Amino acid sequence: MSHRRQLYINATQRPIEPFCDCAFPQSVLLATYKGYIPDLVNCRCGERVVENKNENLENTVTKDSNVEKAPEEIVCQPNGLQWSWEQNETTDTLIKGADITFHPTYSQGTAIVRSERPLKTGMVHFWEMRIITPLAGTDVMFGIGTDKVELNQFQYHFVSALGTNAQSWGFSYNGKIQHNGVQLPYGLKFSQGCIVGICLDRARGTLEFYLNRRSLGVAYTNIPLDPEVKLYAMVCSTAAKSVVRLINSTSQADCLQLRAFKALSKQPKDLQLLRQMPGFRGILNDYWFLTPPVRYSRRNAASELDIADEAVLSKSRLSRKQKYKDDDFDIDDLYSNAHKIAMRCSPEKDDDLHPSEFFDEYFHFLF
Description:
- The chain is α+β, with helices and mostly antiparallel strands.
- It has 2 domains: 3-45 and 81-366, Sandwich (Jelly Rolls); 48-80, no CATH class.
- The protein is built from 9 helices and 13 strands.
- The strands form 2 sheets. A 7-stranded antiparallel β-sheet has the order 1-2-13-4-9-10-11.
- Strand 7 (176-179) and strand 8 form a beta hairpin.
- The longest helix has 11 residues, at 3-13.
- Mean pLDDT is 77; it is low at 52-76, 305-348 and 350-367.
């Protein structure tokens, strides 16, 4: 077996390195620990802390002022979150603030948790989750789903719940995405210490995933734009004592300003000049998710692949043209697009790994 072939196998089977070098509890400790698992982790890397705009507004206006308060849905809490998780006593989960503990005692199926409110149309939503415990078992998935998703549907079944039908879209810790019951290769495996980001554009109908602040490219372009379709952020897990923490969540209205800054986010030099202008600092702070800090971990630097190696690894991902796309989307049709999915298999020989086939996909993945 050649060196490049071995590199391909190792990189696709080994989970990606954590986002930072902070200490996380090991599986041996978690198996016997009787306390509250999130208390074992003090890591706050990547978390944003902002002031509550409502409180500031109340302190700066008088009782006779006619200034209206900012709408509640666009105001961040002190921990930087615009929304958190919905409490549901019927699911096998323990939710305290931004932390979700799946199957606190033992697991007998799949638990699903969703956000406390739907993600509105005409807006760009971005949120990030830190993985507190090692991921194992049938599946742990991150994504979105409609209000038709039954959170207790797989209470006694071990399944990859998000994406089993047309009502949800999911990204697995195994590196695959799923929708309509169809799994496709998308990214690398990930586990404890990693940060999973999700960007839902309900103005253009796209869904994009991030891993350790690095975009993996647009996964789906068939997200419903109909205001009557309510979409929620969702997480599901089959693993006992698995913990996920919501560290950032923001929603911004779609406008020319946002699109302009998104285009500028690909021009680091121009963006750096804007950061030096006082008038743009507040705007850049609102659109921080377009250019988030990438990595803190020293271990990541040691495991970085060069451009040729990443071009080889991109063979396992779908090209941009092959990613799931459907303009005539019927949310009630379970297998309406199964015939349109083209799978790309792992290379059997080194002769199949010609870099010219993958550079376009590589640069899309990088930027």
